[in-house]
Specification:
Elements (H helix, E strand, L loop, with lengths): L1 E2 L2 E2 L4 E4 L6 H11 L3 E5 L7 H14 L2 E5 L6 H15 L3 E4 L12 H13 L3 E6 L3 H9 L4 E4 L13 H10 L4 E5 L5 H9 L4 E4 L1 H4 L4 H21 L24
Parallel strand pairs: 3-4, 3-10, 4-5, 6-7, 7-8, 8-9, 9-10
Antiparallel strand pairs: 1-2
Length: 258
């Protein structure tokens, strides 16, 4: 998978929140083989033993850090947070989130497009978190985003690909654009399904961090992503509304009794 000129062997991106302990987080991230981890930017004093331990883990993994603007509700807030993240993490990468609804955490797509355009002009490499809306995706691409991240379902819901037809159409409409399904994936089968549709990768957090065994679940998602991509590249058989025998009947003997 190629993202803003950088190649990654894994198509799985992992969040770093909600784990029961730093040790479990580290084991899960290693089990996932993810090359990219997302980190939220907090408006509070950094440092301290907990913060230092967290960064030692991230650095030991050798993963690429993708800061995000989680929790931002205005264009100004998102842009300011992105600028802070660039200073803190020394990267032009930013996962751009502009929340539009407090219950569903659905993106404010109007504000998202505006913020993305501003950040691209400022030299950021933007990963916008959006819905599966074709028009919104097109405007984000026109603004200079080389990656688009449509949701499968609301963040943390675990519902999977709620609008599968919409996602399939989005993938077909922009075949040359890198697209990563982000949010709402609750099971490894959901991730495999996204890759089978031709999406380039998936990003998730809650389904792994809140599992009874986050380490095993991380491994399960890693395998599912690999299987989904292999299936897409191999070419899935089309669905049919009628039966088609897999065993040929030509030459089959028929016995008759007088």
């Amino acid at each position: 998978m190629r993202l803003y000129g950088q190649d990654f062997t894994s198509r799985l991106l992992i969040g770093t929140a909600l784990y029961p302990s730093p040790a479990v987080m580290e084991e899960a991230l290693r089990a996932s083989s993810a090359g990219i981890v997302t980190v939220s930017v907090r408006r509070e004093a950094g440092g301290g033993k907990a913060g230092d331990a967290f960064w030692r883990i991230i650095q030991s993994l050798g993963a690429k850090v993708l800061p995000n603007t989680a929790g931002c509700r205005t264009v100004k807030d998102a842009v300011t947070t992105a600028e802070l993240a660039r200073e803190l993490f020394g990267t032009p990468w930013i996962k751009l989130e502009v929340v539009g609804d407090d219950e569903t955490l659905q993106p404010d797509v109007v504000g998202l497009v505006e913020a993305a355009a501003i950040l691209v002009r400022e030299g950021f490499e933007v990963f916008p978190y959006c819905t599966e809306d074709l028009t919104v995706a097109g405007r984000l691409i026109d603004a200079g985003c080389q990656v688009v991240m449509p949701w499968a379902a609301p963040i943390g819901s675990g519902l999977g690909l709620v609008n599968k037809a919409g996602l399939r159409l989005l993938r077909a409409r922009f075949p040359e654009v890198t697209m990563i399904v982000d949010a709402g994936l609750g099971a490894p089968s959901h991730a495999a399904e996204a890759l089978e549709l031709g999406f380039d990768g998936v990003l998730l957090n809650t389904a792994i961090a809140k599992a009874d065994d986050p380490v095993a679940m991380a491994r399960a998602f890693a395998l599912a992503v690999e299987a989904g991509r292999l299936a897409y590249e191999a070419g899935l058989m089309p669905a049919r509304d009628f039966a088609s025998p897999s065993t040929p009947v030509v030459g089959t003997p028929f016995w008759h009794t007088a």
